[in-house]
Amino acid sequence: MLAIIVHGGMEDTVIPPHLAERRNSGAKRACELGYQTLVRGGSALDAVEAAVRCMEDDPIFDAGTGSYYNLCGEIEMDASIMTSAGEGAGVACIQRVQNPISVARKVMETTPHVLIVGEGAELFARLHGFPEYDPATEMARRLLEEQVAKLPEELREVLKRYQEIRKKHKSYSTVGAVAVDGRGLIAAATSTGGNPQKLPGRVGDTPILGAGTFAASAAGASATGHGEGIIKLGVTRTVVEAVNKGREVDTACQDIVTAGKGAKIPLGVIALDRRGRPSAQHNGAFMPAFYQSEELSEAVYIKG
Question: Which residues of 205-238 are buried (b: 16+ CB within 10 A; e: fewer)?
């Protein structure tokens, strides 16, 4: 069974229709690219990497090109990738690369490590041929300038202002994908630029296996939302383990999203079981999610 599901991040508040359409269009395009990778004989790993790279290269998403600046005016990105064969790795706070998801895959395939961060991650990327790249967009620059202009000098006031900024920008446009190939391999991948104006060095759920990304023989999952909360809930591992114990994939996703709502944690999750059955659930206002399989001529929207 060839199948893939992707998400383009969750919004905690309603966004303008034209932005929702751009996010939907970008997610659908990524889903169809990932599916064509499967059709051409690529593995589930190849498919999720291709889908996530597609969204990293689309500035409408907060991943790769389009990532937000942190409070110091730097772009620090996170990504992770994992397969049902037990392989997996992530990169965190990586700068100046175009596709963090591909660096994460290279870490998985060439090292014994599961997470490399900061300067070490960037050095690793350069040593493995990833060229230097500026992922900033004009929109991200304008947002940074607007917020920095309002920041007072005292650290206490900076932190207070940081909290105010986070309350106003409830966007979690992390991107992710899960696929199953003809050999039964399941792979999951997730990538993000993190919160707008986050504190330098902040790491969310995305690069952490079991939080933002997880895959095992029963299913694979990718999460989006409030990173700290997703880490505490162990969202993707919880979903996959529930499926492994006999829960339907849709029920497993509904359960964790409901738990998040009860804990006041905004989150969304997509998952795919070994038979290619999908689920996309969230407790926010909007989450673009698309699915394609051998039974479908094009990617279809999955409403959570």
Answer: bbbbbbbbbbbbebbbbbbbbbbebbbebbbbbb
